[in-house]
Amino acid sequence: MASSDSPAVARRRVRLAVRRAREAKAITQSDVAEAMEWSLSKVMRIESGEVTISQNDLRPLLSYLGIKDRVQVESLVASAKVSKQRKQWWEAPPYRELLTPSMVQLMGLELAASEIRYFYPLIVPGRLQTPAYARAVLETFSGELPEEAIEARLKLRELRRQSFLSAQQTDVFVVLDESVLLRQVGGAHVLRDQLDHLLTLIGDQRIAVRIIPFVEQAPIPMLATYEIVYLADGGEDAAVLHRESDLLDEIVEDKEKIKRHRDIFDRIWNGAYDESTSAGLIKDHATALV
């Protein structure tokens, strides 16, 4: 375990080790629950990352799963200890209740990321949205979410944006469809401010953006929104995929699925306008929105 691990990364290390050891023994989560005298939901939530596991619970679990190497056990126990430290603002009320378990994990992993790749064919990614643009996006759910929930989510999104702006430098690559530059989310003035914000981030070298063009031959994006997060010092488990559509989202750790999404991202990235041309296109569209 790296001494600088964040709680999110430490929690992920423990749950991946537990899940892989269980699968290697060809036993079910129900088998684990019965052997440990736990509820099935407890095992499921530990493996999914929804909850942490105490050191006292982890030691007998590792023994049952056949993980007995002293160095490995102590490393995982240390990770379990770190996973319970420094609770982040989004893990406490009132924000925790507004987030899916996948989003809670994602926000922790983003802070520990060395690289993030966003594929967004319809709108600007949430962490890069201005407050007015975010309001316009979230208000499309007004028929499904009460007003107080929308307001709370707006505050959460703004805090998430500020955490991105104040965090250590992360390599961020963004693919947007050209339609994003034309779709007047919240009206022309809101879109212009949003495009200007993207240009500022590009100028500050916080993000690299490429636009999928309308008029030239380019790969056609057929997937929903997703991002791939690469963790610093993550080794073979460095990459995490987050996919979302409408009100649903999920964390994906299957290496083949992540590779497929990365291959698609690379193909679209290479077929899109380069960064300089894309920035010029964003500027042209922003200027036109007078």
UniProtKB/TrEMBL annotation:
GO terms for molecular function: DNA binding. Residues 18-73 form the HTH cro/C1-type domain. It comes from Asanoa ferruginea. This is Helix-turn-helix protein. Signal peptide: none annotated. It comes from the Bacteria.
